[in-house]
Amino acid sequence: MLPKASARVEKVIKLANAVAREYDREYVGTEHLLLAIASDGTGLGAEILSRHGVTPEKLRREVDALVQKSMEETWVFGRLPGTPHFKNVMAVAIEQCQQLEGLELCTEHLLLALLKEPGCIACKALKALGVTYDKVRGEVLAAAG
Question: Domains in the chain: how many in total?
Answer without folding.
Answer: 1
